[in-house]
Design a protein that fits this description.
Elements lengths: L6 E6 L5 E7 L2 E5 L5 E5 L11 E5 L2 E4 L39 E6 L2 E7 L7 E7 L4 E7 L3 E3 L7 E4 L13 E4 L3 E4 L6
Antiparallel strand pairs: 1-2, 3-4, 4-6, 5-6, 7-8, 8-9, 9-10, 11-12, 12-14, 13-14
Length: about 190
């Protein structure tokens, strides 16, 4: 180990086989090809690196891995599509999602959150944010955790295709259903 890189992080899989090893001075970071990235810092961090990151302790954070082909589809797509799951007829998102796959994830503060399968091969899922009256605000597509940083008065949220653990905790955030982790804009100090 070089003297200018006194800190190292070793990552193993569940069998104990080494998958990544990285060293650094006051920060050690790496992106793993088939898994999450990580950041270790000597100085404690007060908060996570943002959407898509999970702070495991004050010194160590991991990014959530991308959703990979072959992973099971989220359970939300197993239930039959109901009338409440449909996007408005003039929704711009209908151009890049499979219309039969839209599912409402939940409702909060006058907003409705929808998930859908993407109709494009470069992304697996889309999340659509709309007002309760059906007017669409935003949509995003990708292959893993999708995050949205709202404007003033709008909620920030993360969508996880695999779902979040029920005991997930972050000050000012709450779990809405299994797939949405939302920050209440009025819970900010």
């Amino acid at each position: 180990m070089p003297l200018d890189q006194p800190y190292c992080v070793a990552v193993t899989d569940v069998t104990g086989a080494l998958t990544t090893f990285a060293c650094g001075s006051d920060t050690v970071a790496a992106e793993m090809q088939q898994g999450p990235g990580f950041v270790f810092t000597v100085e404690p961090q007060a908060a996570s690196n943002g959407l898509g990151w999970l702070q495991l302790n004050p010194h160590f954070q991991v990014s959530r891995p991308k959703y990979r082909l072959g992973m099971p589809q989220p359970a939300i797509f197993d239930r039959e599509q109901g009338v409440w799951d449909l996007l408005a007829d003039d929704s711009p998102s209908l151009d890049h999602v499979v219309p039969e796959s839209t599912r409402m994830l939940g409702e909060f503060m006058g907003y409705r959150f929808f998930a859908a399968r993407s109709s494009h091969s470069a992304a697996q899922f889309c999340v659509i944010l709309a007002y309760v009256d059906g007017q669409e605000i935003s949509s995003m597509c990708g292959g893993g955790i999708l995050g949205y940083e709202g404007g003033q008065g709008e909620p920030n949220f993360e969508f996880s295709p695999a779902g979040f653990p029920p005991d997930i905790s972050r000050p000012g955030w709450f779990l809405l259903g299994d797939h949405l982790f939302i920050e209440d804009p009025f819970a900010k100090p």
